[in-house]
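Worked example

This section walks through a single chain of length 153. The input is the sequence exactly as stored; nothing has been trimmed or padded.
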Amino acid sequence: MRLGVLAAVSNLIQRGTNRASPVHRLDPRATTAERYDLLVDLATVASLAARWDLVLTSAREAVAIARASDDPERVARAAAELTRSSVWTSQEYETVDEDLVDDLRAALARSGGQDSATRCTLMLALSCQLYYAPGTHAEIDALVDGDPRVPRP
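Given that input, the structure is written out below as tokens.
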């Protein structure tokens, strides 16, 4: 069953699902919310096909869209794609995407101090993105421990 799903996903990507995102920009009636949904769906499908290049670009753009609309829950939903189906960090070796880190920190700050699925997802995504960032060990430890006062470097 899983092989059939993976084959179908791979086929979708081969046939141009990954081209839907650039084409969407050209549609004058297209909304930002539709673009966000398209990017998250693309990241989900790409992760099943082990196309991390598409996962990263799609999820990063979706996170930026959600942050611009000041929506921590949608930031978390998009950020979850960065760790779904992954056994290691999603970014390349010794790479830190500062814009993505800023987006995740801002969403985490707006998510409130209470435990929630959104906050947990943001903390996981941020700790993964900080893995190669120098001087962030205390922040990563606090994120992993669930400390609501997460220190900044």
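What to look for: DSSP finds eight helices and no strands in the chain.
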